[in-house]
Amino acid sequence: MADNYRAEYALLAERLTDRGLDVNKIKQRLKDQKIETPSWGFSNAGTRFGTYRQPGAAVSIEEKLADAAQVHKFTGVAPTVAVHVLWDFPNGAADCTNLSAYAKSLGVKIGAINPNVFQAREYMSGSITNENPAVRKQAVDHMVDSIELGKIIGSDVLSLWFADGTDYPGEGDFRRRKAYMLESLQTVYNAMPADMRMVLEYKPFEPGFYHTDIADWGMSFVMCQKCGPNAHVLVDLGHHLQGTNVEHIVAFLLDEERLGGFHFNNHKYADDDLTVGSINPYELFLIYNELAKAEDAPNGNPPVAYMVDQCHIMKSKIDAMIQTIEHIQGAYAKALCINRGKLLQAQKDYDIVTAEVCMTEAFNTDVSPLLKVVREEMGLDPNPLDAFRASGYWERMGKERGDRAGSGGVGA
Amino acid sequence: MADNYRAEYALLAERLTDRGLDVNKIKQRLKDQKIETPSWGFSNAGTRFGTYRQPGAAVSIEEKLADAAQVHKFTGVAPTVAVHVLWDFPNGAADCTNLSAYAKSLGVKIGAINPNVFQAREYMSGSITNENPAVRKQAVDHMVDSIELGKIIGSDVLSLWFADGTDYPGEGDFRRRKAYMLESLQTVYNAMPADMRMVLEYKPFEPGFYHTDIADWGMSFVMCQKCGPNAHVLVDLGHHLQGTNVEHIVAFLLDEERLGGFHFNNHKYADDDLTVGSINPYELFLIYNELAKAEDAPNGNPPVAYMVDQCHIMKSKIDAMIQTIEHIQGAYAKALCINRGKLLQAQKDYDIVTAEVCMTEAFNTDVSPLLKVVREEMGLDPNPLDAFRASGYWERMGKERGDRAGSGGVGA
Amino acid sequence: MADNYRAEYALLAERLTDRGLDVNKIKQRLKDQKIETPSWGFSNAGTRFGTYRQPGAAVSIEEKLADAAQVHKFTGVAPTVAVHVLWDFPNGAADCTNLSAYAKSLGVKIGAINPNVFQAREYMSGSITNENPAVRKQAVDHMVDSIELGKIIGSDVLSLWFADGTDYPGEGDFRRRKAYMLESLQTVYNAMPADMRMVLEYKPFEPGFYHTDIADWGMSFVMCQKCGPNAHVLVDLGHHLQGTNVEHIVAFLLDEERLGGFHFNNHKYADDDLTVGSINPYELFLIYNELAKAEDAPNGNPPVAYMVDQCHIMKSKIDAMIQTIEHIQGAYAKALCINRGKLLQAQKDYDIVTAEVCMTEAFNTDVSPLLKVVREEMGLDPNPLDAFRASGYWERMGKERGDRAGSGGVGA
Amino acid sequence: MADNYRAEYALLAERLTDRGLDVNKIKQRLKDQKIETPSWGFSNAGTRFGTYRQPGAAVSIEEKLADAAQVHKFTGVAPTVAVHVLWDFPNGAADCTNLSAYAKSLGVKIGAINPNVFQAREYMSGSITNENPAVRKQAVDHMVDSIELGKIIGSDVLSLWFADGTDYPGEGDFRRRKAYMLESLQTVYNAMPADMRMVLEYKPFEPGFYHTDIADWGMSFVMCQKCGPNAHVLVDLGHHLQGTNVEHIVAFLLDEERLGGFHFNNHKYADDDLTVGSINPYELFLIYNELAKAEDAPNGNPPVAYMVDQCHIMKSKIDAMIQTIEHIQGAYAKALCINRGKLLQAQKDYDIVTAEVCMTEAFNTDVSPLLKVVREEMGLDPNPLDAFRASGYWERMGKERGDRAGSGGVGA
Fold this sequence. Notes:
- The structure is a homotetramer.
- By secondary structure, chain A is an alpha/beta fold.
- The first copy, chain A, has 16 helices and twelve strands.
- In chain A, the strands form four sheets. The first copy, chain A, has a five-stranded parallel β-sheet with strand order 6-8-10-11-12.
- Chain A starts with a helix and ends in an 11-residue tail after the last helix.
- At the A-C interface, helix 7, helix 8, helix 9, helix 10 and helix 12 of A face helix 7, helix 8, helix 9, helix 10 and helix 12 of C.
């Protein structure tokens, strides 16, 4: 049974043209968007109930880069890999020599650099909000060191998440901690070279169960304002309370020119770190609607860093990452299928049903023929997951690398 | 620009056949599913902040039936109309004479009958859980009267929702109220003729803000068990706390042969009564996945009543109801596109990515060509919303009926 | 049975002294805190399911002030009354003449002035975010008029809440609406006299069910920043998603010198408008912990406006308002009972159990003897609710005023 | 500074007598309630972000029992210890010989027995819902073995929690899994001796992030019904979605005679396993209100098992457990202070404010003098936490046992 995607594409192209859209421009934008995968998405991971090891899961940064390179090889849009200083460079700068060259040999590059100021025992009671100035200094020093590593490996995004928080009322003083935090962040910010950007993550809870010091986008935003123009808010899709309208936050940050980027994943309850778009694909589409609109009318917002932050436990890791890329591309492609002229008019007329139909007809568009043609034009197999599976890479790694304890990763 | 849906359908049919599906059976099931619209969806409605009247909104039950008949005329799958005793029959049985015949003349029938035991001042502190036995009796009598009305108008589903609950800890005694409730429900149940079914709704909050007496499916289930085999749980999609896995509840109730039916709508936060599938269409698809599976392997569950419960405030009412039918059909159609053989195998193999792909490839299928062909085969316009709008009915009603205070409806 | 509260107070005073606290200062602070009641808390109210009228409920602003004066008479700490322009002054300035004098004669004063830009039919699709510039102008004009009224009646706080939002994805454009909103707010801000402050409320949903334009504290904060130094965030306790750490937000805003004030109430689910402290009294205590701490070390934050925003439906209205004042005083009193020296040391030592015990021993302190003595020293009956009930005022009003349709109020 | 608790008690006793309560009976009930501590609460624990070891944390079951015995020694109401088969008896029955005698020598007894069917690699994809019959058999066998262990160590409660669930739509089939689960549970149930009870836990999510097979009390209830009269629902306070009215569920289960017991803890967001009563103490009081009422009018509900389920990471473990017992006793004591006669009358009169005042005056009662006198009468130090700390036990264990990797526990 032949895949008729070219015939389907032809009909789709007609439909999109009817909506006043330029199909070639849509294809070009799909080719241009780059998505960063995380090194820690290729190593073993777990929940608090246990870690489940996968035979073949990467342990060294070299293996992680090799796995990430597979994702890029089959999707064509994942050329960079975020790194995690503690897990990837246990020996610091020594681990970084030649890493850029090695990455390049695999066809990828190093992306954002992620310091880790939560795992060492010293941080048991917090890092940059710790009452102990020596601990705060340790955390700041690690981040400054990470900036230096970033320079070596060619990273221009410093990606910050803090596990700082408390479990019980009274345990900490919100405002004293806020002052400690600001001072530390400003010190780190000032250590960055001019061409580096800081992206600052927020999270409402976990591992602190009563409060976290940067609990929502507003707190991250205020900190970024106080640091300077190269500090921007990082939106992790799993870091919102139930009912939050995330696309509204994205639009607001874009408008304020403070949207630094994303950590893509999805959640049904807490910070579940599931495959992006797996629980509520319409929400992902609505986020991409804002991003696509912003591309049409750029303001001073920095380039948005599209980063995946998922630690797959039960899914085969590279399969899951390719699937992730497909979900993201699907959401973007659908957002590019919106009849914007008709939508604008319906909004101005308060014809709500028509406005909504503009959204749903785009969302319900089957964009897989479009994406297959895009891949084909990029010299790729139109079905990256099938192609990767057929390559036998994962089975080979399972045999070559075997079943090993991981060198890092959440829950590992 | 011609609509190429027939060409699109041809390609889709090939794809579905490739998935091992019988396209003719899919079309037949789409023709067979019937969805009930609510009389109160055609009258004015509001929030606690105010009611916004729409010119042309129906006031009398005759007008509501006429509007509902429009929905059926253009969709072909909405032949019954749920009625609300208090709002539709303010004079009781006197309003019911000839109503069946009138409905028939419009091409529709009366569906579920909904008593109202929350609006009268006597129910300020509750109906069947009221400490005052006279109030409880008044509520029971009204429901028994509704059963009699149901016999007159040919309804075989008694649909029960209770606003009973409390606002403050201490206000009521959960267990004393439970005993009152059970006694009343059993009395009502026993008054039903053998061919009538009771469906019992649950809701976690509102209008009671601290507790409601039937707060979740479990409480409704226990009450149904204690009433008898013709009492079943009614699932209103908006009546769940954030994070609830509704499709799991649906599956559980189907398995226990206690799923009475649905009140279709959607919510992002509380009981928002938005268009079904408008906030999380994937959830609606996953619910239909369970329903479609259950049709393939029926057990002793009663026929599921598919009822809409939406009170549109801002959307044009008939437009919104036609859109609603389209959303429901879309979800059902997509559920029928799942490659069930492949899915079952992937589940047994714990190949999670493949199992999920079976779901997403079905969900991402653009079923609009399929639905257009189905409508065509039913002698309908393939685009019901456009066709209805083109008919000029709503503008005509706006002029003929004008802008009037409503005779019922939530918030009206 | 005599009330031994003086003996209980004596023992309590010893305990507090043992904690290093100055009981006289605590009493003084309890006498000094003023809480504002809302005029709309004395009129009829309802939910979307109906309004339940109470015999004696106030209709005119004069009656509302008279009822509010009762609350102040028996509690001694509620000397001001927030007014609602549309509901209280249907004829605008004409209704305001002599109102200050009338209020004074009752022993109260006018507090915050609340414009209403949501009830008129023109605002069906929004006020300051409306696509129609004429509607935006109407809303801005109403707010500017409200500023003028405020000058007449001696109000120095302009309290703003907007019902603006949407129900469906695609219905509105977040960023275009944001631009409209900012322009309108700045116009209003610039119309204020130098000694007036603007407080700006946020709310995650309702009446818009998909988005509201000022959805969280961060969005309000950014708008305030862009308006100027006399614009501050208003925290309504019911306007947070489940799981939000409200006391953290309060601390953050205090630290940023942007906490304008509160709308006190409580909720278990959505925006339930229940009596403050009735569902989670510990949360209210933790909020007061931040406020009491801030009083000890003032920064440039403006005076915090403590305002009640509750519309009682089932509770007798004046009873409920007196109970509300008692809840607030109780939370404040308990926060003043914290052993701050011990707490600080425990925080620095990361002795979490001891830190928490500092909070719980204060929270578990029965402060009713303290509050009774405070009231006695203020020349009041120690039991305000009992004293008010014994006065027969409410029964008298029920007879004199009777059971009337209300002139305003949420859901009325 | 002397502690005047006896004088405070005397005044409190007067107050309670005024409320129509029998203080001696209250004291007796406080002496009679027994609370079970969990062996795993004394070993190291963590979150998915890491385990933080405490010097002195117990490793062997003997050490855990010794630590639990300290809690009982200082509180007098914690005589039993729940055990966890996998973590406590790695060698099965061999570890159980003489354990009862050893426990007795410490002054404690073995309580509920908890099988573990989630940690072994075989359970990666589920235990009793696994598609593989061999895995299901392994899980059932382990539970049957646990029953045998229970007989040896004198346990009469089999406490079951299942980690079974899925992460993604499509991953599993709800109904096929339900059938597997029921068959397994019935097999285990039938293996119990007549004097053993099964308690069955529910949980809405985690470690499964899309669904868990026993997601709510209703699903647990149905399973218990199908097993038999000795199967009851276990309520873990952290296992509810935001907004759930837990006290209502407790009342409902008591009324249905299916409340098996509790896992005490607290949460602000997800399943945080914080100290019971630390986030919302009023909720704990409202739960105890139902329990205390049920004691006044017993039906056929089995004896309720009061079990703690907390894994303290940051708090000193034995301190935290003693604090936990104090929180539970405080909630119970406050519930016993409710003026039930006045409350009943207010409920019947729909005098909501008075009814609520009955609750709040009890909740605001400082019961610490009462509890101190109770402890004194039991021959205990009135301040168990201070007394334990003064004993030097924990410092001694820190030195003797040292800082060791744990032998079990969540996240360890």
